[in-house]
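pasting for ref
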Amino acid sequence: MATNIPDDDNDERTFIYTQPIFPAGYAAGTKDKAAIMQSAGPDVERQVQVTGKDKFEYMLMYCLRLLEQAQGNICAFYLDDFPDCDEFTMRILQQLIGRSGYTTSDFLEPTDRKYKGFWAWLRK
C-alpha cells in the first residue's frame, strides 16, 4: 500500500534524525551548538521543552567543551554528571554528539548492563 509519507531518516516519525549534521571529517565544538540544536528534529525539540532549554543546552555545551579539550581522545559522560538527567535525555545527547563528528559508545554497568552514560571520541 503506497503512502505519501517519505521513507527517509528525516521524517517526523524518527526518534532523532540520523544523518550527520556536519561534513565528514569535521568535529563539532562549542561554537556549533546552535547548528546542532537547529538540526535536532521534532522529538528532540519536545524533550528539550520537557528538560528545559537552558538545562539541555548546558549539558550539550558541557559535552562539546570536554570533547574540544580532549582533542579527539576519549571522554566519558555519565548520568551522574548531570543532576536530574534521565536515560532518555542522555541518549538524546549521545545521538547528537554522534551526529556531530564523534564516535560514541554506550557505557553499561558491567554487573547488570544498565545504561550509565556514554563515551565519545574522534576516530584516528
